[in-house]
Amino acid sequence: MTIKISPTGIEKRFGDSEILVSRTDKTGHITYCNAFFRDFTGYESQSLLGQPHSCMRHPDMPRAIFKIIWDTLEANTEAFAYVQNLTTSGDHYWCFAHMTPLYDDKLELSGYQASRRVPNHTVVRDTIEPLYQELRTIETKIKDKNEALQASTEHLETLLKDKSTSYRNFILSL
Question: Which of 64, 67, 87, 126 could form a disulfide with 152 if both were Cys (CB 3.0 to 4.6 A apart)?
Fold first, then answer.
């Protein structure tokens, strides 16, 4: 079963001491989520487990950001990003996500864990939203999805190069 949600345009916020936690297998399918995650987002474990984590992705999130996240994780490195997701009601929430590879007892990659904290809402409004809108504009202007992803990723890489920084350092500096 695939979950399909339409955005309402209403932002939902969570508290500074609350953390949304989920784990996935190597392909990004959800294997665990903490009680706060389920309560806040409205998902029930039985409907969420086994689903691709992308089922809650907000359509305004640029694909280039997820490419950077996956490239980083696949290089066995922790990733950081500001992410906008959807709850079951279609309300959205912003979070500051910290994603890490998980390993089994044989030190083989077994999946990924994401811990999401309250973002700095000023940073989201003043920096992240304009940047993501710029990337989404690039992605929507090009019909071929692969070419669109390549163009937005190259644009982001150029912006970072102009700032003499990496994506990770840029995000952590905000």
Answer: 64
